Task: inverse folding
């Protein structure tokens, strides 16, 4: 019987995000990450809901050792969780890198949905209200590289007005991390990315293009 793959904990990776708070903080950085992750895993998707979940699970959490540094008899309130999230917002790049490193490790232990290859989808959306035609400002376009096997975006990019430009910028960020896994991967995209410049960017990364299949295979 095959053993169920053991998914690595994200905590060691998240602990690489520096704690820039004052040294005399009441709650441990690791503990706050764990509480937020457990809240998210319980279906709470915002700070208010996570804070309510912490309060609802108070007795159990305290029994597990989730408490303040001094006496272990109190849990972080809503304001503390907001401050924690605000601290993370100041280090978004470090947080994204930590989560990306964890996600790539998860891929190493999971059987891919399509054996022998991973599929990364490029998709873009315009940010509503970002265009100001009166002053000539183009709409801001956000593009993500979505990894279907994990159900998350590993990379994100942005550009003004042109999805193909944003896509090319993102393509130039792809490659090394996934190549190190030793698994071939394929980029899929819609018609907005079918331009000669995009094909050139893909070839520069060592990939190949096929208009017939509308796919781009990168090493």
Result:
């Amino acid at each position: 019987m095959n053993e169920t793959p053991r998914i690595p904990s994200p905590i060691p990776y998240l602990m690489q995000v520096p704690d820039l708070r004052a040294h005399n903080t009441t709650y441990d950085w690791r503990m706050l990450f764990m509480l937020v992750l457990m809240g998210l895993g319980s279906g709470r998707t915002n700070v208010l809901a996570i804070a309510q979940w912490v309060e609802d699970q108070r007795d159990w959490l305290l029994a597990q050792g989730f408490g303040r540094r001094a006496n272990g008899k109190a849990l972080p309130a809503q304001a503390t969780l907001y401050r924690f999230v605000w601290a993370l917002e100041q280090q978004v790049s470090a947080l994204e890198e930590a989560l990306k490193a964890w996600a790539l490790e998860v891929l190493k232990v999971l059987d891919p949905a399509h054996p022998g290859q991973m599929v990364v989808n490029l998709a873009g959306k315009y940010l509503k209200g970002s265009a100001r035609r009166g002053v000539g400002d183009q709409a801001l376009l956000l593009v993500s590289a979505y990894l279907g096997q994990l159900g998350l975006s590993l990379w994100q990019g942005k550009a003004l007005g042109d999805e193909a430009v944003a896509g090319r910028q993102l393509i130039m960020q792809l490659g090394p991390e996934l190549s190190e896994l030793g698994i071939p991967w394929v980029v899929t995209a819609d018609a907005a990315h079918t331009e000669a410049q995009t094909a050139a960017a893909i070839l520069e990364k060592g990939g190949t293009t096929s208009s017939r299949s509308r796919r781009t295979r990168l090493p």
About this structure: The mean pLDDT is 78. The two ends are 33 Å apart (CA to CA).
